[in-house]
Design goal:
Helices cover 48% and strands 14% of the residues. The protein has helices at 9-12, 36-52, 57-63, 71-75, 89-102, 104-124, 127-138, 157-160, 263-294, 306-334, 340-364, 376-388, 393-405, and strands at 144-147, 164-171, 177-188, 196-203, 209-215, 221-225, 238-248, 296-297, 300-301. Strands 1, 2, 3, 4, 5, 6 and 7 form a seven-stranded mixed β-sheet that branches. A two-stranded antiparallel ribbon has the order 8-9. Strand 4 and strand 5 (209-215) form a beta hairpin. The longest helix has 32 residues, at 263-294.
Amino acid sequence: MRAGLAQSPAAASAPPASIEGLPTADFFDFESMLNAAEQAKLAELREFLAREVAPFAGDWWNKAEFPAHILPKLAALELSAPAQRGYSNLFAGLVIAEITRVDTSLATFFLVHHDLFVESLYGFGSEEQKARLLDDAANLRTTGAFALTEPEHGSDVAGGMETVARRVPGGGPDGGDTWVLNGAKRWIGNGTFCDYMLVWARDEAGGAIRGFIVDATLPGVTRTRIENKIALRTVQNADIVLKDVRVAEADRFAGINSFEDTNELLRGSRIMVAWQGVGQQLAAFDVARQYAVERQQFGRPLAKFQLVQQQLVTMLGNAVASMGMMVRIAQLQDQGAADMPQVALAKSYVSGRMRETVAMGRSLLGGNGIVTDYRMAKIFADAEAIYTYEGSFEINTLIVGRAVTGVSAIV
């Protein structure tokens, strides 16, 4: 094995010298469907990731530390909410896949902040809220979180949400109404350090779901980091407790009047998490193939063994099939036609193939597959989070089952 295999920038982005000239993990060249400007921007992102992220991502993960120092450099790429900047939905998905290919945790930060918080401002914010918050958020001068999941409610949070909001006439800084929030949220990405949280709560008067922009430093907000994770260790997930937190009416999302209003956001974030599943498979194939070519056993490279080649081809097939499904989803998005069952099928299928792919990759590396020095252990562990969040494999499967049978097996 060559010394550069474990944590080199080359292993995280472009193919290393030892496999120069071989096909990439994008075996069907879906990337060629991007226009020239998008291809150039994706190349710029790859260069940034190879220089600023790949050499350090393993250390951040091991230490469970978030690299806040790189946010200004990430912002300089001007990739916040790509579709809002005129890029295609395919490009937006490939951005998430490429970041995931190098560091799943950074990709998770990116999609929570940009694809949930920033997109919420675009989609549901008032003109005053956009003018006040959007520019700083889009340029990462401030950071956001999406506080939906609760300690006792994940898949059933729509009907079981326990966080409540009570409207109080007057009392706001401008003489307007205020809202008093009480409850708890769990698994909130970016929750320990974010400036703002988009908090979902049930209106005590009538039971409608409301959305609020909550300054994370308000009195009554308590944030506690979730420790001892085996996946996405760089992501700072938090338990959030809200006790008599007073939020001005001006910070309520006027565009949110029911949980159904969140479907567009959740559909979009589910798509991006499915793209993470693609990125995980690209990463697993990159690392496994390089290892197979360079690692010597029985006097020959692992790549010369038939069963190793079979594993690599299966991994590649899974990645290409997953990527092809997501390319079609991006086309449907461009047409405004990607519905939730289609997105649920993509997320469940891709995450299922991802789990198989990363398991093969971990096995191919043998004992070296369980230490983060060789990257595959990190890829393998992070896949478990993707398999679960934005709708578990099972819940997404049942959403599709309901669509194709007309009968719900969820409740």
